[in-house]
Amino acid sequence: MTIKVLVIDDSPLIRSLLTEILNAHADIDVVATAEDPYDAREKIKHYNPDVLTLDIEMPKMNGLSFLRNLMRLRPMPVVMVSTLTEKGAPAALQALELGAVDFIAKPKSNILTELSRYHEELTHKVRVAATSKNRIRSLSTAYLRSKIEVPVGENHYAANHLVAIGASTGGTEAIKELVRGLPVNMSPIVITQHIPPVFSTSFAKRLNSVSKMQVFEAQHGQQIEQGCIYLAPGDRHLTINKKGHKLFCQLDDDAPVNRHRPSVEKLFDSVAKLGSNQATGIMLTGMGADGAYAMLNMRKAGQHTIAQDEATSVVWGMPGAAVEQGAIEQILPLQDIAPTILRRLIVSNQRVTKNL
Protein backbone atom coordinates (compact mmCIF):
# COMPACT_ATOMS: atom_id res chain seq x y z
CA MET A 1 0.00 0.00 0.00
CA THR A 2 1.39 3.40 -0.99
CA ILE A 3 1.53 6.15 1.64
CA LYS A 4 0.16 9.40 0.23
CA VAL A 5 1.99 12.43 1.66
CA LEU A 6 1.27 16.16 1.50
CA VAL A 7 4.33 18.33 2.20
CA ILE A 8 3.49 21.74 3.71
CA ASP A 9 6.28 24.33 3.91
CA ASP A 10 6.70 27.93 2.78
CA SER A 11 10.22 27.27 1.44
CA PRO A 12 10.35 25.98 -2.16
CA LEU A 13 13.78 24.48 -1.42
CA ILE A 14 12.52 22.50 1.60
CA ARG A 15 9.42 21.34 -0.31
CA SER A 16 11.61 20.13 -3.15
CA LEU A 17 14.10 18.36 -0.86
CA LEU A 18 11.45 16.57 1.23
CA THR A 19 9.62 15.53 -1.93
CA GLU A 20 12.78 14.13 -3.51
CA ILE A 21 13.67 12.13 -0.39
CA LEU A 22 10.20 10.66 0.12
CA ASN A 23 9.54 9.90 -3.55
CA ALA A 24 12.73 7.82 -3.69
CA HIS A 25 10.75 5.03 -1.97
CA ALA A 26 8.23 2.88 -3.82
CA ASP A 27 5.86 2.80 -0.85
CA ILE A 28 5.69 6.61 -0.45
CA ASP A 29 4.16 9.09 -2.88
CA VAL A 30 4.17 12.86 -2.33
CA VAL A 31 0.85 13.59 -3.98
CA ALA A 32 1.18 17.37 -3.58
CA THR A 33 2.98 20.20 -1.82
CA ALA A 34 1.53 23.34 -0.25
CA GLU A 35 3.16 26.67 0.57
CA ASP A 36 0.83 27.70 3.40
CA PRO A 37 -2.08 26.30 5.46
CA TYR A 38 -4.75 27.75 3.20
CA ASP A 39 -3.20 26.07 0.19
CA ALA A 40 -2.88 22.88 2.27
CA ARG A 41 -6.54 22.93 3.29
CA GLU A 42 -7.70 22.74 -0.33
CA LYS A 43 -5.17 20.06 -1.24
CA ILE A 44 -6.15 17.89 1.73
CA LYS A 45 -9.71 17.91 0.43
CA HIS A 46 -8.59 17.09 -3.10
CA TYR A 47 -5.83 14.49 -2.51
CA ASN A 48 -6.93 12.93 0.82
CA PRO A 49 -3.35 12.26 1.99
CA ASP A 50 -2.43 9.65 4.59
CA VAL A 51 0.27 11.77 6.25
CA LEU A 52 1.17 15.46 6.37
CA THR A 53 4.60 16.95 6.95
CA LEU A 54 4.01 20.37 8.46
CA ASP A 55 6.29 23.35 9.07
CA ILE A 56 5.69 25.31 12.27
CA GLU A 57 6.67 28.78 11.05
CA MET A 58 4.64 29.77 7.98
CA PRO A 59 2.95 32.89 6.58
CA LYS A 60 -0.81 33.60 6.84
CA MET A 61 -1.32 30.99 9.59
CA ASN A 62 1.35 29.28 11.69
CA GLY A 63 1.62 25.52 11.81
CA LEU A 64 0.30 25.21 15.38
CA SER A 65 -2.92 27.08 14.57
CA PHE A 66 -3.41 24.95 11.47
CA LEU A 67 -2.71 21.76 13.42
CA ARG A 68 -5.20 22.73 16.12
CA ASN A 69 -7.93 23.26 13.50
CA LEU A 70 -6.97 20.09 11.62
CA MET A 71 -7.20 17.86 14.71
CA ARG A 72 -10.55 19.34 15.60
CA LEU A 73 -12.09 19.00 12.13
CA ARG A 74 -10.19 16.20 10.35
CA PRO A 75 -7.64 14.33 12.52
CA MET A 76 -4.83 12.68 10.58
CA PRO A 77 -1.19 11.69 11.16
CA VAL A 78 1.16 14.69 11.09
CA VAL A 79 4.96 14.86 11.27
CA MET A 80 6.15 18.32 12.25
CA VAL A 81 9.20 19.71 10.44
CA SER A 82 10.75 21.91 13.10
CA THR A 83 13.88 23.86 13.89
CA LEU A 84 15.25 21.67 16.67
CA THR A 85 16.62 24.43 18.86
CA GLU A 86 16.05 25.25 22.51
CA LYS A 87 13.98 28.24 21.40
CA GLY A 88 11.82 26.05 19.13
CA ALA A 89 11.34 23.23 21.66
CA PRO A 90 8.17 24.58 23.36
CA ALA A 91 6.41 24.94 19.99
CA ALA A 92 7.36 21.41 18.91
CA LEU A 93 6.18 19.97 22.25
CA GLN A 94 2.94 21.91 21.90
CA ALA A 95 2.49 20.34 18.47
CA LEU A 96 2.70 16.88 20.05
CA GLU A 97 0.17 18.02 22.65
CA LEU A 98 -2.17 19.07 19.85
CA GLY A 99 -1.92 15.65 18.19
CA ALA A 100 1.16 15.50 15.94
CA VAL A 101 2.67 12.01 15.87
CA ASP A 102 6.32 13.10 15.77
CA PHE A 103 8.74 15.81 14.68
CA ILE A 104 11.95 16.03 12.68
CA ALA A 105 14.56 18.73 12.24
CA LYS A 106 14.43 21.03 9.27
CA PRO A 107 17.16 20.13 6.77
CA LYS A 108 20.29 22.18 7.56
CA SER A 109 22.75 23.84 5.22
CA ASN A 110 25.15 20.91 5.65
CA ILE A 111 22.45 18.36 4.79
CA LEU A 112 24.63 16.86 2.04
CA THR A 113 27.08 15.60 4.67
CA GLU A 114 24.26 13.92 6.60
CA LEU A 115 21.87 13.15 3.76
CA SER A 116 21.81 9.39 4.32
CA ARG A 117 20.93 9.72 8.02
CA TYR A 118 18.31 12.40 7.37
CA HIS A 119 16.84 10.39 4.50
CA GLU A 120 16.43 7.35 6.76
CA GLU A 121 14.99 9.33 9.68
CA LEU A 122 12.41 11.21 7.60
CA THR A 123 11.09 8.14 5.78
CA HIS A 124 11.01 6.17 9.04
CA LYS A 125 8.91 8.84 10.78
CA VAL A 126 6.50 9.11 7.84
CA ARG A 127 6.01 5.33 7.79
CA VAL A 128 5.44 5.29 11.56
CA ALA A 129 2.92 8.10 11.26
CA ALA A 130 1.07 6.24 8.50
CA THR A 131 0.81 3.04 10.52
CA SER A 132 -0.01 4.69 13.83
CA LYS A 133 -3.65 4.33 14.67
CA ASN A 134 -3.55 7.72 16.34
CA ARG A 135 -6.50 6.47 18.41
CA ILE A 136 -5.31 8.29 21.47
CA ARG A 137 -6.66 11.45 19.82
CA SER A 138 -10.15 10.00 20.03
CA LEU A 139 -9.78 9.91 23.81
CA SER A 140 -9.98 13.55 24.79
CA THR A 141 -7.78 14.75 27.62
CA ALA A 142 -10.92 15.34 29.66
CA TYR A 143 -11.98 11.72 29.17
CA LEU A 144 -8.60 10.41 30.27
CA ARG A 145 -8.60 12.57 33.37
CA SER A 146 -12.13 11.56 34.27
CA LYS A 147 -11.04 7.91 34.30
CA ILE A 148 -8.07 8.43 36.64
CA GLU A 149 -9.38 7.39 40.02
CA VAL A 150 -6.71 7.45 42.72
CA PRO A 151 -7.18 5.69 46.06
CA VAL A 152 -9.13 7.81 48.54
CA GLY A 153 -7.81 9.10 51.82
CA GLU A 154 -4.46 10.33 53.04
CA ASN A 155 -2.07 7.73 51.66
CA HIS A 156 1.62 7.05 52.20
CA TYR A 157 3.68 5.45 49.44
CA ALA A 158 6.83 3.35 49.49
CA ALA A 159 9.83 5.67 49.60
CA ASN A 160 12.29 2.89 48.74
CA HIS A 161 10.43 1.66 45.65
CA LEU A 162 11.47 2.99 42.22
CA VAL A 163 9.11 3.41 39.25
CA ALA A 164 10.93 3.27 35.89
CA ILE A 165 9.19 4.46 32.69
CA GLY A 166 10.27 4.02 29.07
CA ALA A 167 8.66 5.67 26.04
CA SER A 168 9.23 6.92 22.50
CA THR A 169 6.78 8.03 19.77
CA GLY A 170 3.68 9.45 21.48
CA GLY A 171 5.40 9.22 24.84
CA THR A 172 5.58 12.89 25.77
CA GLU A 173 1.80 13.13 26.04
CA ALA A 174 1.40 9.67 27.57
CA ILE A 175 3.93 10.50 30.29
CA LYS A 176 2.24 13.81 30.97
CA GLU A 177 -1.14 12.13 31.41
CA LEU A 178 0.34 9.43 33.64
CA VAL A 179 2.12 11.77 36.08
CA ARG A 180 -0.53 14.49 36.12
CA GLY A 181 -2.62 12.91 38.87
CA LEU A 182 0.16 11.45 41.03
CA PRO A 183 0.39 12.74 44.62
CA VAL A 184 3.22 14.85 45.99
CA ASN A 185 4.48 11.99 48.20
CA MET A 186 4.53 9.38 45.43
CA SER A 187 7.41 6.90 45.19
CA PRO A 188 10.29 8.26 43.05
CA ILE A 189 10.13 7.95 39.26
CA VAL A 190 12.86 7.76 36.60
CA ILE A 191 12.05 8.23 32.90
CA THR A 192 13.80 7.59 29.61
CA GLN A 193 11.93 9.18 26.71
CA HIS A 194 13.51 9.23 23.24
CA ILE A 195 13.86 12.97 22.69
CA PRO A 196 16.38 15.35 21.07
CA PRO A 197 18.97 16.93 23.41
CA VAL A 198 17.58 20.46 23.19
CA PHE A 199 14.04 19.29 23.99
CA SER A 200 14.52 17.41 27.26
CA THR A 201 14.96 20.56 29.36
CA SER A 202 11.72 22.03 28.02
CA PHE A 203 9.93 18.71 28.47
CA ALA A 204 11.04 18.48 32.11
CA LYS A 205 9.73 22.00 32.72
CA ARG A 206 6.43 21.13 31.03
CA LEU A 207 6.04 18.00 33.18
CA ASN A 208 6.86 20.00 36.29
CA SER A 209 4.10 22.49 35.45
CA VAL A 210 1.39 19.79 35.39
CA SER A 211 2.64 17.46 38.14
CA LYS A 212 2.35 17.70 41.93
CA MET A 213 5.71 15.90 42.07
CA GLN A 214 8.99 17.77 41.54
CA VAL A 215 10.39 17.08 38.06
CA PHE A 216 14.11 17.30 37.24
CA GLU A 217 16.16 16.81 34.13
CA ALA A 218 18.48 14.25 35.75
CA GLN A 219 22.00 15.29 36.72
CA HIS A 220 24.95 12.95 37.22
CA GLY A 221 25.22 11.94 40.87
CA GLN A 222 21.82 13.39 41.82
CA GLN A 223 20.20 11.52 44.70
CA ILE A 224 16.80 9.99 43.95
CA GLU A 225 14.19 11.03 46.50
CA GLN A 226 10.52 10.41 47.21
CA GLY A 227 8.10 12.80 45.52
CA CYS A 228 10.50 13.46 42.63
CA ILE A 229 10.68 12.56 38.93
CA TYR A 230 13.99 12.34 37.04
CA LEU A 231 14.04 12.61 33.22
CA ALA A 232 17.02 11.43 31.16
CA PRO A 233 18.69 14.27 29.24
CA GLY A 234 18.16 13.99 25.50
CA ASP A 235 21.75 13.05 24.67
CA ARG A 236 22.85 10.93 27.66
CA HIS A 237 22.03 7.49 29.02
CA LEU A 238 20.41 7.43 32.47
CA THR A 239 21.12 4.48 34.76
CA ILE A 240 20.65 3.87 38.49
CA ASN A 241 23.52 3.57 40.95
CA LYS A 242 22.86 2.17 44.43
CA LYS A 243 25.07 3.16 47.37
CA GLY A 244 23.97 1.59 50.63
CA HIS A 245 20.25 2.22 50.91
CA LYS A 246 20.30 5.29 48.63
CA LEU A 247 19.79 5.54 44.87
CA PHE A 248 21.54 8.00 42.55
CA CYS A 249 21.21 9.05 38.91
CA GLN A 250 24.16 8.09 36.76
CA LEU A 251 24.64 9.64 33.31
CA ASP A 252 27.03 8.52 30.59
CA ASP A 253 27.89 9.20 26.95
CA ASP A 254 28.30 5.57 25.91
CA ALA A 255 27.35 4.55 22.36
CA PRO A 256 23.64 4.44 21.49
CA VAL A 257 21.82 1.23 22.40
CA ASN A 258 19.14 0.08 19.94
CA ARG A 259 20.06 3.25 18.02
CA HIS A 260 19.05 5.44 20.96
CA ARG A 261 20.78 7.60 23.53
CA PRO A 262 19.19 7.78 26.04
CA SER A 263 18.14 4.13 25.84
CA VAL A 264 15.32 2.49 27.76
CA GLU A 265 17.35 -0.75 27.65
CA LYS A 266 20.17 0.85 29.66
CA LEU A 267 17.82 2.28 32.28
CA PHE A 268 15.76 -0.88 32.76
CA ASP A 269 18.84 -3.12 32.96
CA SER A 270 20.22 -1.00 35.79
CA VAL A 271 16.84 -1.04 37.58
CA ALA A 272 16.63 -4.84 37.29
CA LYS A 273 19.76 -5.07 39.46
CA LEU A 274 17.94 -3.48 42.41
CA GLY A 275 16.27 -6.81 43.17
CA SER A 276 12.86 -8.31 43.90
CA ASN A 277 9.97 -5.95 44.72
CA GLN A 278 12.27 -2.92 44.59
CA ALA A 279 10.90 -1.43 41.37
CA THR A 280 8.02 -1.23 38.91
CA GLY A 281 8.65 -1.00 35.17
CA ILE A 282 6.23 0.75 32.80
CA MET A 283 6.53 0.63 29.00
CA LEU A 284 4.54 3.30 27.20
CA THR A 285 3.82 3.99 23.52
CA GLY A 286 6.78 3.99 21.14
CA MET A 287 8.21 2.66 17.89
CA GLY A 288 10.75 -0.16 17.93
CA ALA A 289 11.75 -2.55 20.69
CA ASP A 290 14.10 -0.54 22.93
CA GLY A 291 13.84 -1.83 26.50
CA ALA A 292 11.96 -5.06 25.81
CA TYR A 293 14.80 -7.43 26.77
CA ALA A 294 15.73 -5.39 29.84
CA MET A 295 12.11 -5.38 30.94
CA LEU A 296 12.18 -9.17 30.84
CA ASN A 297 15.20 -8.96 33.15
CA MET A 298 13.14 -6.79 35.50
CA ARG A 299 10.35 -9.34 35.58
CA LYS A 300 12.81 -12.20 36.15
CA ALA A 301 14.26 -10.19 39.04
CA GLY A 302 10.85 -10.17 40.73
CA GLN A 303 9.80 -6.65 39.75
CA HIS A 304 6.29 -5.72 38.60
CA THR A 305 5.99 -4.83 34.89
CA ILE A 306 3.23 -2.97 33.04
CA ALA A 307 2.71 -2.16 29.34
CA GLN A 308 0.35 0.43 27.88
CA ASP A 309 -2.30 -1.29 25.78
CA GLU A 310 -2.54 -1.08 22.01
CA ALA A 311 -5.81 0.88 21.95
CA THR A 312 -4.38 3.91 23.79
CA SER A 313 -0.87 3.78 22.27
CA VAL A 314 0.00 6.00 19.32
CA VAL A 315 2.42 3.24 18.27
CA TRP A 316 2.36 -0.20 19.94
CA GLY A 317 5.95 -1.02 19.07
CA MET A 318 7.88 -0.93 22.36
CA PRO A 319 4.98 -2.14 24.53
CA GLY A 320 4.14 -4.84 21.98
CA ALA A 321 7.77 -6.01 21.83
CA ALA A 322 7.88 -6.29 25.64
CA VAL A 323 4.65 -8.32 25.61
CA GLU A 324 6.08 -10.57 22.90
CA GLN A 325 9.18 -11.21 25.03
CA GLY A 326 7.00 -12.33 27.96
CA ALA A 327 8.24 -9.36 29.97
CA ILE A 328 4.83 -7.99 30.98
CA GLU A 329 2.57 -8.90 33.89
CA GLN A 330 -0.18 -6.35 33.17
CA ILE A 331 -1.39 -4.69 29.95
CA LEU A 332 -3.42 -1.60 30.81
CA PRO A 333 -5.06 1.41 29.11
CA LEU A 334 -3.11 4.60 29.78
CA GLN A 335 -5.76 5.95 32.14
CA ASP A 336 -5.55 2.85 34.37
CA ILE A 337 -1.78 2.81 34.89
CA ALA A 338 -1.53 5.58 37.52
CA PRO A 339 -4.27 4.24 39.84
CA THR A 340 -2.86 0.72 39.48
CA ILE A 341 0.64 1.65 40.64
CA LEU A 342 -0.74 3.87 43.40
CA ARG A 343 -2.78 1.01 44.83
CA ARG A 344 0.24 -1.29 44.71
CA LEU A 345 2.58 1.19 46.40
CA ILE A 346 0.41 2.26 49.32
CA VAL A 347 2.20 1.37 52.55
CA SER A 348 -0.43 2.91 54.81
CA ASN A 349 -3.84 4.41 54.27
CA GLN A 350 -5.61 6.84 56.55
CA ARG A 351 -9.10 7.67 55.33
CA VAL A 352 -10.13 11.28 55.69
CA THR A 353 -13.13 11.73 58.01
CA LYS A 354 -15.15 14.83 58.79
CA ASN A 355 -16.27 15.90 62.23
CA LEU A 356 -20.04 15.75 62.17
UniProtKB/TrEMBL annotation:
PROSITE patterns: CHEB (PS50122), RESPONSE_REGULATORY (PS50110). Keywords: Chemotaxis, Cytoplasm, Hydrolase, Phosphoprotein. Its main location: cytoplasm. It comes from the Bacteria. Pfam families: CheB_methylest (PF01339), Response_reg (PF00072). The modification 4-aspartylphosphate is found at residue 55. It catalyses: L-glutaminyl-[protein] + H2O = L-glutamyl-[protein] + NH4(+); [protein]-L-glutamate 5-O-methyl ester + H2O = L-glutamyl-[protein] + methanol + H(+). Signal peptide: none annotated. Residues 4-121 form the Response regulatory domain. HAMAP family: CheB_chemtxs (MF_00099). Contains a C-terminal catalytic domain, and an N-terminal region which modulates catalytic activity. NCBIfam families: PRK00742.1, PRK12555.1. PANTHER family: PROTEIN-GLUTAMATE METHYLESTERASE/PROTEIN-GLUTAMINE GLUTAMINASE, PROTEIN-GLUTAMATE METHYLESTERASE_PROTEIN-GLUTAMINE GLUTAMINASE. Belongs to the CheB family. Involved in chemotaxis. Part of a chemotaxis signal transduction system that modulates chemotaxis in response to various stimuli. Catalyzes the demethylation of specific methylglutamate residues introduced into the chemoreceptors (methyl-accepting chemotaxis proteins or MCP) by CheR. Also mediates the irreversible deamidation of specific glutamine residues to glutamic acid. This is Protein-glutamate methylesterase/protein-glutamine glutaminase. It comes from Catenovulum sediminis.
